[in-house]
Amino acid sequence: MKNHLSLKFYQQIARAYRQPYLFLAGILLILSVPKATAHNITVHPDTVTCYNNTDVKFYVTVDANGIGYGGSVAIQLPPNWGKPQDTCYSILNGCQNPVSVRCTTNNSVTFKIIPDDWTHPLYGIYTNEVHICRFIVNSIATLVAGDVIEIDFGNQGPGNQGGGGYAFTPSRLAGIEHFYFQFQHDSLSAASVVDSMQVLQKPQALYRITALAKSNPDINATFELKVVAYDKLNNPVPYTGTIHFANFDGTMVLPLDYTFVQSDGGVHSFYLSITDFALHRIKITDLAGNYCFSNPIIVDTSGLKVFWGDLHTHSQYSHHGLSYPIDVFNYGKNISFLDYLAFTEHSYIPDSQYRAGIAIANQFNSNGNFVTLNGYEWSTAFLGHQCAYFNSSNPPAII
Asked: How much is the pTM?
């Protein structure tokens, strides 16, 4: 195959960031392609890093073959990089486009954007959770040798909500994902071989430590305290610091100092007990001077307990959140240490996704430990939005 395009990837620092409550966002990305490839595009350099999820840019340099009228560039995102809620176009127009494109060397070249063309995946099976963007040259001016196409993944639209907006969310575990690319010289030419770019996901540096426990344990009974090390955007980081526990109210049995190891993934549980009826807050300090206080903890004397949870959540199923339901429930149970969590996708999602989410919620349910609720957010033009909940592992269909 002829080598007709060269891609150059450069580090970009994000314009903005946000901290979504239950969803991972904004990890360190290392984008790379092995040198020994037999494909018809070459990636330079081998690795690029970017530290936020709202501005990932890369560049395509056109070779001697050019890209004429009707020619195109197509990009398939990793399946769990959910598309933004608002980007280039209004939601009302049905165009939620997570990628923008322009020719930096010839402003006369324009593109027709076909966002989220998931009906024709470049790689893998047909699924409405695969997000693909195609950019078709639709101007008299065309791309010639040496022209540079800038492709920007993130929130580009002037109408985005909350400034930087959403861009993608990585998997709940650091690992390898892939971008897939395909190019076409003109509307009559055969498409190129699909090529891929490897994405190695890692969190950012340590930003804060948190400590969470059940609010009302029984006296002299062992209960769990979970310590989590986060980066700036609430991803657990592979922290290796040594922490010390202190208690300033009453008496309780505290854990010994602990040094985190890589396999902890920044999350470790400790077990302690309270021997009095005072209100306790535990202070955790590490050798670098980072510290935090736990939530207030007091022995239950009334039979009434405080429970923490979230009754309104979305994943990318609703296009108002990121990642999959399994990531929502994993984060709520194992990272945020909630007592309950509700599955409330929008009422417009397909029944297949509704049932898939319910199955995940049921899987995570553990009576007395982590309770999941099944339901949906019912929306109408006249009555607004209301969440419906069902005391059932097999609730009725959405109406």
From this structure: 0.66
